[in-house]
Amino acid sequence: DNRLSKKILVVAGDGIGPEIVAEAIKVLNALQADGAIDVTLEDALVGGAAYDAVGNPLPEETLVKARASDAVLLGAVGGPQWESLHISKRPERGLLGLRAELGLFANLRPAVLYPQLAAASTLKPEIVAGLDIMIVRELTGDIYFGQPRGVETLPSGERRGINTMVYTESEVERICRVAFDIAMKRGKKVCSVDKANVLECTEMWREVATKTAAEYPEISLSHMYVDNAAMQLVRAPKQFDVMVTGNIFGDILSDCAAMLTGSIGMLPSASLNEKGQGMYEPIHGSAPDIAGRGVANPLATILSVGMMLRYSLDAPEAADRIDAAVFKVLDQGLRTADIMSEGMRQVGTAEMGDAVVAA
Ligand code: NAI
Ligand code: MG
User: Pathway it acts in (predicted)?
Assistant: First the structure.
C-alpha cells in the first residue's frame, strides 16, 4: 500500500552535497530493505546546481515537490563560482526560500561530543566530555526578516543600513513550546537566551517564555543574556541541556556550540514546521575545498537522516539504529580525514557510508 509510504525529497545541492547525500541514501535504502521504514525518494534541484540548470536557485518544481513531501533531505548549497551573483540568485536563496516556503520555524541543532572524538575539541576533555546540548533556534523571524530593512541614502549622501528585530508573542510561544517538548524527553532544563537588558523585543521574549513555561511545571526554565551565554558555552558548556533563542542569537550560538565538539562533519540539524514536516541537513556547507575528492565526512548527513526518522517520519527505532551504527563505526576506529587521529583508520566518504550500513 503506497499511501503508507513516506515521501522524502532529496536535494543534494552543491560541492560535497551529492557525495554525502549518496551515503545517507545508502543508509535509508538499507533500512528500507530491512523493512524498518517505508519511504519513497524523489530528487530535486536547489542552490547553485539549480541556478546552473534553470537560472533559479529555487525552481518552482522543487517547491511543489517539497510541499508534497513528508521530509526534505538537503546536502549543502553554495560555492565560489556563484559568489558574484546578485543576492536574489545566490544558492543560499534556495535554502532560505525552502525554509520560508515550508514555514520551518524551529531549527534543532544538537551539539553532541562523541567520547571517541573527545580529543577533537579545542577545549579540555574534562570541560566537554559527555557534552549533549540541544539548541532550538527560531528560524522565521527576527532581524533577518523584520521591516524596515535595506540601505538608504541620506540627504547628506551618506548611506544608512537598516535591519529590524521583530517577534510576535505567538512566534515566541511557538518556539518555546518546541523547546519545552524536547526538554521533557531529555534533562527537563531549558535556558532561554535573550538580550532583555537592552532590546525591548527580547524583553518581551523573556516574558512570553516565562508565561509559556508555567504550563510545563516539570521544566526548569532559566534565562541568560546572549553575551553571557556565549561565554558560558565555552566556560562550562555542560551546564546546558536545551537552549532556546531567536534567529540571530541562535545562528551564532549554535555555531559556537557546534565547535565545542571539534568536528563540523559530525553535526546534523532539523528544521520543522507546525505540521511536523521538516528539512534535515548537516550544519556544514558545501566544502568546495574538498568537493569531488571522496574525502568528506558523511556522518553529519547520516545523523540528519536519523533526526528525520525521529522528528518527521515517526520511526524512532530506526533513528536509534542509525545513532547506534554511527557510534559503532567510531568505536571501530574508522575516521574520515576531518576527524582523523593517531592510531585510527582513515577512510573515504563511501567507505564510511558502507561501514554505517554494515553496522
Ligand atoms: P563549509 O562548512 O563548507 O566548510 C568549512 C570547512 O569545514 C572547510 O575546510 C571544509 O572542507 C570543512 N568541512 C565541511 N564539511 C565537511 C565534511 N562533511 N567533511 C569534512 N570536512 C568538512 O563552510 P564554508 O567554507 O564557509 O562555506 C563553503 C560554501 O558553503 C559557501 O558557499 C557557503 O555559502 C556554503 N554554506 C552552505 C551552507 C548550507 O548549505 N547549509 C552552510 C554553510 C555554508
Ligand atoms: Mg550559521
Answer: Amino-acid biosynthesis; L-leucine biosynthesis; L-leucine from 3-methyl-2-oxobutanoate: step 3/4
